[in-house]
Amino acid sequence: MNLPDxxxxxxxxxxxxxLRFVCGTxxxxxxxxxxxxxxDGNVTPFFGIHPWFLDPAAxxxxxxxxxxxxxxxxxxxxxxTGLDKCRRGIPGMKMQKDALRRHLDMAARMNRPVALHCxxxxxxxxxxxxxxxxxxxxxxxxxxxxxxxxxxxxEDWLLSIGPREMERADIFTSVxxxxxxxxxxxxxxxxxxxxxxxxxxxxxxxCRLAGIVTDNLSRISxx
Length: 223
Hints:
By secondary structure, the protein is α/β, with parallel strands linked by helices. 40% of the residues lie in helices and 19% in strands. It has two domains: 19-135, TIM Barrel (Alpha-Beta Barrel); 139-223, no CATH class. It has helices at residues 27-39, 59-72, 93-110, 122-129, 148-151, 169-174, 191-202, 206-220; strands spanning 3-8, 17-23, 43-47, 77-84, 114-119, 137-139, 157-161, 180-182. Helix 2 packs parallel to helix 3. It is globular and about 50 Å long.
């Protein structure tokens, strides 16, 4: 069974994994992501700067390098990027929002999807996304913080549920199927268990669930 993985990082895939969105988090791992994409046709690369790795002295220069990678890989997405109010010792909201806006502007201009991290800043993130109604995005690590019907007007914003929430049966049923994605994040080995648990919660066969998620990821993949 080809299980799609909506958000992961450079690492060997679990057996049976299909389409993978592999995200870089800073210039330090972009070449590794690029190499995976060149070797594996199932990999869609994403390049971006995670708020944890935002360098106040270098991020503007790194954005120029980011555009070079996106030009080099016309099928690549933007990310992982986003907002984080949880982690200590990282740049504050102003710089995070400035950097995120640069990512979103680039994604909108180049017609690329965005992989988004968010911790305790969903309201701020949703407010920024409303300025980009045509943007395609995956909200990674979905915890149920927003109402999909009222807070996410774009039909091309997917909600990706990962290992941390896999024991919450209610979260799978709270997401409309046309928005649903499943991810391994940093634990590719748990992907089969995640699909098994999600399929049970949704009362459907795993193969049907894998098909739905594959269709959703394909819908927002770069043209």
